Amino acid sequence: MEAPEPGAGSSAVAELAEASRSGDRRATARLLSLVERGGDPADEVASATQAHVGEAHVVGITGAPGSGKSTITNSLTTLLAEAGHRPAVLAVDPSSPLTGGAILGDRVRMSGASGAGVFIRSMATRGHAGGLALAVPGAVRVLDAAGFDPVVVETVGVGQVEVDVTDAADTTVVVVAPGWGDAVQANKAGLLEVADLFVVNKADRPGATDARRDLDLMLDLSTVVTRPGTGRPSITMTTATEGDGIGELAAAVTGHLDLLCEGGELDQRREKRRIAEVRAHLEHLLAGAADEALATEGLQPVQASESPMMAARRLARKILG
Amino acid sequence: MVDSGLPIRVVLAKLGLDGHDRGLKVVARMLRDAGMEVVYLGLRQTTDNIVAAVEQEDADVVGISMHNAGHLTLGPLIVRALGEAGLAVPVVIGGIVPDTDLAELEAAGVAAVLGPGASVEEVVTTVRSAAGRDGST
Q: Residues A211-229: what's their mean pLDDT?
């Protein structure tokens, strides 16, 4: 079918959504592009898919660059596809802050999943911080409405504080590799606090059992429940290149969803997700207004008595009226 | 956001048994630095895999790198595979292609061919032009 041009109107988008639901992958791909575009086209896609979302288990996979997120995503979704599921992947990689360009390289590790029929979409962050693209929640809804389940969201390679994925996913898997850090690293605030499940990947390498021990110890010391309703996060050892441990990971992911459903936690997480998405868009709009205010209002000369904080307040008053 | 402000999306791959990917990596970096989004598939891709990627990624252009003298077979093959899948996405071939083969590739529907001496500007302009996005990123 001929894909309508963006802005072609809501009926064209509704047709795409209908085609996407009946399995037309190009229609799904076009809808994802419209979501990435933002603005009116993205709104139309949201309206057209809204009635058909909520079925998919959204699984976030995050961790440091090179820890094996893509390889795990490949092995996990291949296994699920071969077991009769219809998984889809959203693989996020960073955009250059200088040129806006990006190398989206996650598919390099995903030939197996592609061959098994997994729908894979690469997505650039397009200026969004936090480990995901602004368009991720909207894109997840498109894949959900198209009947894919689970939808696996692979974040950019993250450091310690990029925890946006926990707002975007039902289940957050944090991947670490041997040598990633010691017991003190394990107790620093941030990413490790928000894991529902841990994976120690590259388990065939020296240091894997040390990594597991450090994570276990960190969990032992935890005195607050950071992720209510689903108990202590499990730790799965994998060698994703060989597929070792992937069956256990699949079971852990499914088991986590069961816990979420039993405790009523799933609905709460999804409500939080909705709020987080609104907030992200709100921040985006305000950031745009801030850039505009800086460009048009300008600043006083450096010598002037206006401090950076005072200048910011002045511009904020302008923006917020 | 206006259309011209959106990045061009390019799928880059090596098709079949051809292990020379340095050139493709250099091109990926050139296109990235020109503000494009490069979906990099890498080595030993099948036509099925490339077609699936082009479809799922909603790509504007597909770039295939060839250094194994297979271009007269594989070039038309990927153009045909995309056509059969109903994907009207231009194919740019890069690598070692003798001048004498250019006409045959053009006749087979290959949008452009970039040789070893191509400058950054030439690579970027060719991809933009293939995407129908001259004068933009």
A: 83
The tokens describing A82, both together, are: 């071969």
Tell whether A21 and A153 lie within a shared domain. Answer: no
- Assess whether A114 and A165 both reside in one domain: yes
* Mean of all residue pLDDT scores within chain A: 90
Chain-chain contact of B40 with A105 (C-beta, under 8 angstroms): yes
What is the pLDDT averaged over residues B99-119?
Answer: 95
Residues of A in contact with B36 (CB under 8 A): 101
Would you call A312 an interface residue with chain B, using a CB distance cutoff of 8 Å? no
Burial A147-156 (b: 16+ CB within 10 A, else e): bbbbbbbbbb
Predicted confidence at residue A236, as pLDDT, reads 98
The answer for residues whose C-beta is within 8 angstroms of residue B87's C-beta and 6 or more apart is A26, B51, B54, B55
Q: How many domains does chain A have?
A: 3
Any domain includes A268:
no
Q: How confident is the model at residue B136 (pLDDT cuts 50, 70, 90)?
A: low
Question: What tens digit of pLDDT does each residue of B64-87 get?
Answer: 999 989 999 999 999 999 999 999
Q: Do A101 and B33 touch (CB under 8 A)?
A: yes
Query: Is residue A84 in some structural domain?
Result: yes
Do A209 and A280 have their domain in common?
Answer: no
Q: Are A22 and A146 members of one domain?
A: no
pLDDT band at B3 (very low <50, low <70, confident <90, very high): very low
Contact A236, A68 (CB under 8 A): no
Q: Is A100 close to B86, i.e. CB distance below 8 A?
A: no
One-letter-per-residue 3-state SS of B13-57 = EEECCCCCCHHHHHHHHHHHHCCCEEEEEEEEECHHHHHHHHHHC
Q: Residues 6 or more apart from A99 whose CB is under 8 A from it?
A: B32, B33, B34, B35, B137
Is B6 close to A26, i.e. CB distance below 8 A?
Answer: no
pLDDT of residue B49: 95
| Domains along chain B with CATH numbers | 3-130 (3.40.50.280)
Identify whether residues A62 and A207 lie together within a single domain.
yes
**Any domain includes A60:** yes
Which residue segment(s) compose the domain that A26 sits in? Answer: 1-51
Which pair of tokens denotes residue B69?
């003298």
Look at residue A104 and tell me if it is in a domain: yes
The predicted pLDDT at position B103 comes to: 96
- CB interface of A with B, residues 126-145, below 8 Å: 126
Nearest to A104 among B33, B39, B49 (CB): B39
